[in-house]
Amino acid sequence: MCVGIPMQVISSEDGMAECEGRGRRERLNAMLIGALEPGAWILAYNGSVVRAMSAEEARQTNQALDALDAALQGGDVDGFFADLV
């Protein structure tokens, strides 16, 4: 299974975007979606920007990734999805 990571654009030029998310900073190929404004949220996968996303969608995706990390470490994940219970 492959998982995209929500990241926020720091800067963008010449088809590349400097982005931060989940404790890392990367320079990503943004040619698939075009120009990006600083502060925009994107979904990053394998060195590329796959698509733009809303801040709310980024928050929800990060929450799901946090739950996945907790599950992989044998932790309780119920608190991550209290709105689904």
Describe this structure in words.
The chain is α+β, with helices and mostly antiparallel strands and 85 residues long. Helix content is 21%, strand content 38%. A 5-stranded antiparallel beta sheet has the order 3-2-1-4-5, covered by helices on one side. The longest helix has 18 residues. The model has no long low-confidence stretch (mean pLDDT 92).
In a nutshell, what does this entry contain?
With 85 residues, the protein is α+β, with helices and mostly antiparallel strands.
Set out the fold topology.
Blueprint: E1 5-13, E2 16-21, E3 24-29, E4 41-45, E5 48-53, H1 55-72
Antiparallel strand pairs: 1-2, 1-4, 2-3, 4-5
**Helix/strand order:** EEEEEH
Envelope shape = elongated
Largest sheet: 5 strands, antiparallel
Which range does the strand content fall in? 35-45%
Radius of gyration: 14 Å
Low-confidence spans: none
Class by alpha and beta content = alpha+beta
Q: Describe the strand arrangement of the main beta sheet, using strand numbers.
A: 3-2-1-4-5
Helix content: 10-25%
Query: What is the overall pLDDT average?
Result: 92
For this entry, give a set of tags:
85 residues; alpha+beta; 5-stranded antiparallel β-sheet; 21% helix
